[in-house]
Amino acid sequence: MAFEGLADRLQSTIQKIKGKGKVSEQDVKEMTREVRLALLEADVNFKVVKDFVKRVKERSIGQEVMESLTPGQQVIKVVKEELTSLMGGEQSKIAVADRPPTVIMMVGLQGAGKTTTTGKLANLLRKKFNRNPLLVAADVYRPAAINQLQTLGKQLDMPVFSLGTEVSPVEIANKAIEQAKENHNDYVIIDTAGRLHVDTDLMDELQQIKSDVKPNEIFLVVDAMTGQDAVNVAESFNEQLDISGVVLTKLDGDTRGGAALSIKAVTDKPIKFAGMGEKLDEFEPFHPERMASRILGMGDVLSLIEKAQDNVDEKKAKELEEKMRSASFTFDDFLDQMAQVKSMGPMEDLIGMLPGANKMKGLKNVQFDEKQITHVEAIIQSMTKKERQDPGLMNASRKKRIAKGSGRSVSEVNRLLKQFDEMKKMMKQMTNQQKGKKGKKGKGMNFPFM
Amino acid sequence: MSFLKKLKEKFKSEESEQVSDKYKDGLSKTRNSFSGKINDLVARYRKVDEDFFEDLEEILISADVGVSTVMDLIDELKMEVKRQNIKDTAQVKEVISEKLVEIYQGEDDDVVEGLNIQENQLSVILFVGVNGVGKTTTIGKMANKLKEEGKSVVLAAGDTFRAGAIEQLEVWGQRADVEVIKHSEGSDPAAVIYDGIQAAKSRKADVLLCDTAGRLQNKVNLMNELTKVKRTIEKEIPGAPHEVLLVLDATTGQNAMSQAKTFSQATDVSGIVLTKLDGTAKGGIVLAIRNELQIPVKFVGLGEKITDLQPFDANAFVYGLFADMLEDDVQ
């Protein structure tokens, strides 16, 4: 059905390519088509998708993917990198006014979740930053909207400013600021009525409020389930109000949330927070990296597995498996593996994501120092071919020579030899484990470098 | 006679100008952007080739029609173009709208779009949907509509969760001048609905409209709660609820399909109310839902006024989308 992730989507294309020695441009075209579909299914706007796919294609047709032995995974990697960089870094900061109160305006379409978000934001401000916000009920149009905010205020034990439904929202906002100053509220959050971005009168009203109260932040609240129209909404609100950030709501649903990407692409404003539930504390800083995974339809762990897979080349991994089984694993293989693993990124992250890695003996207290790896490489490279094939040859004079050649101490050489030995034992454990859990995702997940 | 002429004439003969005017107003932005694009497309391309279809695909996708539906449609179009040996893009325009209507209506032309309201007996309508789609507002509008049709209506404030939801329904109750049965916030929704049924029975009301709290379809507990509410209604009145209406926000993208599926599993949805169609959202997901789940759209929300709820009419809807094209063609 329509909701499979990119990884699944690419499977069949990958199968086709697998047997080929070289990836053709046509293959890349097919793969990027799958990328396009996955993004469209995730509700990313088609124009945004178009630009995006173009960039991915350029990178993919370049050496990066064509020369990789696992082009499918390579494409996913490229896509995710591009996606994450497009989403920007984490930005959950809230502006602070030079002279309090700091004024925040909440705007958006009907039903996006402005009032609930107002409550959640106020809760966050008090809990995390020890602030004392005043909530302002400026939605005079929707029946009982004021009532809703008042109820939230009661739940939070926070003041709610309201002048009923007969006063204009502009006046309400102005009077609220006055009251905040009198009562020493350091934040004012104005909950405005939901409105269509094409409703000129109501958009004018927001502009009026903006020019009167000069807010420090204008948050556009957007439903994460929004479809292709997200670009129109975000673009229009941004053009008319120059919003300062976005809050994505209802992210606890099962939507892919491609709207996030569309909004970011058309407004270039940061998505600051995400609503993750109906309770007032279910409100989090927005994580661009997680969102990228979500849009592509893969979890954090899954993406890491893929990260491992695209760097550990399959043929070599198979040979390795053979070697591990027959216990003929050598220092040369070790070197090879290390080079592959190094290209995957920070070691600690990788190990941390491995299911069960923490429980594994020998892995528990190992500190991963990238420098150390270079040292290990140097030590191995100082060994003779014979020594690399057969560590049993080692004696004191050989060790001394190796230490000299690599610029490390003999004790370090000893430590490596011991670790290598332990690692071989562990590999046996791992292969046994794999045999036990046939067909699990552990395939190709060999970490013999430890 | 060409298909487009037939459609046009159908409108004339049905004297449904008023209805279609409303659609045209509400959908004017939709129509301009959607069929405007198809016209652009037709003007841009001389030949019906791969590029043409790719652009067409984009237009449909931008209307939230849904990727798989679009793919199917494009495949069918390609076949049709081949079969009829169409080379000119002007000709293909007609085939496009023909196919779209086909998807709307399916094989079955007689799908009942109206509400299943019983004679001389209480009819119960249950409203379900995710948060913020406009359930309570829709109930307010529908109460008014039914009342104008001479029915006596009772509302049950089954959203006991969201702050201010009960008060919101009460305001709509006052506007439509109908009674609202309520408990306090946080009470059991099934109990409220039960009381609603008893009250509606004793007042010999014609229709009971039941509000429920918005819930995301992946919250299993909340979906179970909804199933329980429905069971309560079934127990009290055999054959009820007579309608379970899923309220969908037209701005929603592909997730609407997931909503339709999961809510159907929990409550056996009988129809859809598509709200907020007066914005720039295209509401194309209706095509996909109709096509894949055979759930008909029964009403559309075209504005914020109490009278802005219109019965869904597939022909009028398509007419609204393609009005420019149709008029060009017939003249």
Descriptive terms for the model:
heterodimer; A: 450 residues; alpha/beta; Four Helix Bundle (Hemerythrin (Met), subunit A); Rossmann fold; 434 Repressor (Amino-terminal Domain); 8-stranded mixed beta sheet; 8 strands; 9% strand; B: 331 residues; elongated
Summarize the structure.
With 450 residues, chain A is of the alpha/beta class. Chain A contains 20 helices and 8 strands.
How are the elements arranged and paired?
The complex is a heterodimer of chains A (450) and B (331).
Chain A: H1 6-18, H2 25-41, H3 46-61, H4 63-66, H5 71-87, E1 102-108, H6 114-129, E2 133-138, H7 145-156, E3 160-161, H8 169-183, E4 187-192, H9 200-213, E5 217-223, H10 230-241, E6 245-249, H11 259-267, E7 271-275, E8 283-285, H12 288-296, H13 300-311, H14 314-325, H15 331-342, H16 347-353, H17 370-381, H18 385-389, H19 396-406, H20 410-436
Parallel strand pairs in A: 1-4, 1-5, 2-3, 2-4, 5-6, 6-7
Antiparallel strand pairs in A: 7-8
Helix pairs in contact in A: 1-2, 1-5, 2-3, 2-5, 3-5, 5-12, 5-13, 6-7, 8-9, 10-11, 15-17, 17-19, 19-20
Chain B: H1 3-14, H2 17-26, H3 28-44, H4 50-62, H5 67-83, H6 89-105, E1 123-128, H7 135-148, E2 153-156, H8 165-176, E3 179-181, H9 189-202, E4 207-210, H10 220-236, E5 243-249, H11 255-267, E6 271-275, H12 285-293, E7 297-301, E8 309-311, H13 314-330
Parallel strand pairs in B: 1-4, 1-5, 2-3, 2-4, 5-6, 6-7
Antiparallel strand pairs in B: 7-8
Helix pairs in contact in B: 1-13, 2-3, 2-13, 3-4, 3-6, 3-13, 4-5, 5-6, 6-12, 6-13, 7-8, 9-10, 10-11, 11-12
